[in-house]
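Quick one, tokens below. Sequence please?
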């Protein structure tokens, strides 16, 4: 009854059965399919769910005689007449309602509201047509409407140099890895409120014993904000997350990279002379952020490495590898777990692993970082920075002085 059996032959067979036989046959197939069987049968044959459920109840009769007593067959054409057959103009009105805008058009009857079946039903009732929300839902499906959620696909106008930048990053990263030089992906994860707040997702707990959290998310109930900034080694599948408590600034971002080098990089790449950083084009590590370059120069001087930075083009942050190789698994690991304090945040991040061998070390950064720090032209002129010939606005190398 499923898969390839959804064929014209099957539907032709059902057409040979009377009302009761069809109901019993579909009920039997639904029971054999097990969990979700009723929905599968309804989707396959277009039969209503109550009809299949009724058939299942009838099959539970103790005797064949009792079953036959419930097998009343309606004469052809029995049942209620479709409202659009009695009132043909209903469908025309329904189409007009669906064509109306809902974004504030002063002439629209449904302005500033969503077009739910209940609202459409009330509007039709006001026009003198008694039609239920369920009936409207069925008619909309016949008119090729369906309930749909928003889907994130629109990225805006692509930058002219987008493709060339991705190719450049890939080629450079391959060369660095082949020469055993570090390639890290960096970014700031979503800020998290510290306290007894609801965290999306579910986790296994004893039945009837959910974790009780605050009803409201008021600011005066929070114990602070956690700002996780991560540095992920693309080749080694390992990362470091520096959890800040003040502000997501360029100085904080560079300090997070310093933590990665101290905890991991200096041992894994002791013979390396350079490092490649892949970062988004905005935020604390933005391509036009002066402080980002200034503090990278300080880091380069301290660790004696040339630091090459390649920024992803505008509107392409979702392709940053740290997002789907590290941050996504952190979110999965602490889902349903209230982040009641910073220790919980650090421990949950550090305990995140995957089947592919992901390992993460998290540290708490208690330093207070100043926002709005201005880097002067004189300070910028002292940077030992070289912009690449390819997409120089996104690619540059800072060398130790």
């Amino acid at each position: 009854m499923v898969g390839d059996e959804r064929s014209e032959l099957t539907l032709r067979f059902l057409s040979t059965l009377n009302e009761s036989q069809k109901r019993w046959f579909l009920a039997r197939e639904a029971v054999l399919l097990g969990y979700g069987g009723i929905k599968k049968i309804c989707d396959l044959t277009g039969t209503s769910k109550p009809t299949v459920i009724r058939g299942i109840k009838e099959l539970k009769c103790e005797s064949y005689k009792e079953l036959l007593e419930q097998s009343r067959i309606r004469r052809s054409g029995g049942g209620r007449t479709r409202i659009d057959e009695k009132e043909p103009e209903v469908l025309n009105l329904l189409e007009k309602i669906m064509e109306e805008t809902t974004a504030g058009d002063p002439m629209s009857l449904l302005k500033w509201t969503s077009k739910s079946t209940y609202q459409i039903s009330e509007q039709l009732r006001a026009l003198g047509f008694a039609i239920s929300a369920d009936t409207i839902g069925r008619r909309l499906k016949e008119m090729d409407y369906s309930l749909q959620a928003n889907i994130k696909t629109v990225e805006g106008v692509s930058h002219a140099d987008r493709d060339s930048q991705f190719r450049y990053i890939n080629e450079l990263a391959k060369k660095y890895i082949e020469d055993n030089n570090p390639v890290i992906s960096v970014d700031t994860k979503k800020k998290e409120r510290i306290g007894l707040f609801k965290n999306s997702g579910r986790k296994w707990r004893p039945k009837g014993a959910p974790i009780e959290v605050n009803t409201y998310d008021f600011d005066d109930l929070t114990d602070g904000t956690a700002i996780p900034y991560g540095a992920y080694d693309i080749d080694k599948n390992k990362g470091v997350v520096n959890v800040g408590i003040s502000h997501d600034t360029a100085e904080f971002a560079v300090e997070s990279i310093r933590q990665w080098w101290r905890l991991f990089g200096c041992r894994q790449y002791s013979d390396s002379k350079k490092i490649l950083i892949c970062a988004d084009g905005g935020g604390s590590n933005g391509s036009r952020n002066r402080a980002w370059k200034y503090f990278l120069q300080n880091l380069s001087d301290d660790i004696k490495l040339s630091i090459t930075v390649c920024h992803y083009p505008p509107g392409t942050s979702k392709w940053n590898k740290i997002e789907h190789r590290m941050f996504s698994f952190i979110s999965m690991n602490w889902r349903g777990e209230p982040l009641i304090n910073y220790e919980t945040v650090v421990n949950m991040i550090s305990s995140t692993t995957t089947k592919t061998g992901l390992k993460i070390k998290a540290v708490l950064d208690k330093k207070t970082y100043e926002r709005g720090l201005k880097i002067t032209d004189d300070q910028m002129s002292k940077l030992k920075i070289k912009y690449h010939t390819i997409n120089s606005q996104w690619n540059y190398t800072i060398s130790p002085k």
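The two ends are 73 Å apart (CA to CA). The chain has 15 helices and nine strands.
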